[in-house]
Amino acid sequence: MAVTAGELLESVRRRVEWFTRTSDTRDLCDPAGLRDAAALLAAAGTLRGRSARKGARAAVGLLRYARHLVRPDEEDGHAADELLAHADAAEIAAVRQAAERSPLPGPELPPVEHLTMATLGASLAHLDDLVARIRYGLSDPVTVDELRYLVIVAEAREARWGRTGAAEDLDDAVAAMDDVVNRTPDDHEWYPGRMSRLGGLLQFRFAVTGERQDLDTGIEAIRTAAEAVPPGHEDWPMFRSNLGRALLFRYGATGREADLDEAVSMLTEAVAGTAGDELVSIAASRLGLLQQATLARYHLRGDVDDLDSALDMARQAWEATPEGDHNLLDRALDLGRTHLAAFQYTGDTGHAATAEQLARQIVKATPREHTDHQAAKTILDQLRTRRAGQ
To answer: What is the DSSP secondary structure assignment for residue 115, as one 8-state letter?
Structure first.
């Protein structure tokens, strides 16, 4: 979902208002604020009404003016002059007063448990407010328990990237999570989860930039997390699954066969170690990942036993995924791809019919730009090509 001019305006205004209330220069000078300001100026023409467009220019002018007051060597005061003409004299005076006084106490932080879902579906303004309140409210140095708040900062940065698509926001998320990991003792119970989370963010960044070091460093972080959890621990299958997924991802990116073999091994252990009382959707997802790795190994080496196993696992994972689960389309896609592979090997039209039925259902259920839609179209194209050649 694209960020609207209205949301950018709300975010820039929030940053200015927070500064006038607290004199918090760290939030004011966060580079994300300038990125929002630049995006707002570019999109201001899409705002409805002359007053809204004037308000956008005023907000950007106030932000730049405030930054110039606290960091005159870094911010050009002339850049704000023209835009400040759209702001009220009282707003300009409030910014000037905030720059002249010492920081004031911020609001008390709520218990961290109250913030665990705070980033879901949040606007930029809400995400930035969350980051500002947490950073402003923590002690210096931060205690081990307070690091839980900094995890939420990293989550807010990641959610911001999900909204803006800006590589800089993803960099901020990686930096925030890296800071948390570096401050967490490696024998702490939360260390594996935080290390694994950092590895996941690095893999996201590889997908954006193609920087191989991020991919490799991310996998080593996930491996460290998996090795820190002993067999028998309730989270042991989860971390094995995380490592298997990461290795399968790198195999897809590089074709490194050792990664595929290790991915199959890790995912086999994860599936075998999943408790019988685990959520059905989680168990089905782990089985689905193992199926994907097994099918990839079949395509690599042509072992029919892998094809048979992949087809059986794909069917089980699809049948076990609850109706309405967000993974249901992926499980249907896995099953369709495996039936396609079985048709290409055996020529059995029953496999072709099932693959076609599943692919058409996915095409119907997804928009054209969706990756599952495109993958299902590929299945249909491959079926047509194979049939035409018979």
So the answer is: G
Structure token pair of residue 19:
């500064």
Write 26-30 long-range contacts (CB < 8 A, 24+): 26/132, 26/135, 26/136, 27/128, 27/131, 27/132, 27/135, 27/136, 28/63, 28/66, 28/67, 28/70, 29/67, 29/70, 29/71, 29/74, 30/128, 30/131
pTM of the model as a whole: 0.90
Q: Which of 142, 152, 200, 213 is nearest to 174 (CA)?
A: 200
Whole-number Å distance between alpha carbons of 178 and 198: 6
What torsion, rounded to 10 degrees, do the Cα atoms 183, 189, 190, 194 define?
80
Tokens of 379: 């299945």
Contact 261, 307 (CB under 8 A): no
Distance CA 374, CA 368 (A): 7
How far apart are the two ends of the chain, measured CA to CA in Å? 44
Confidence of residue 76 (pLDDT cuts 50, 70, 90): low
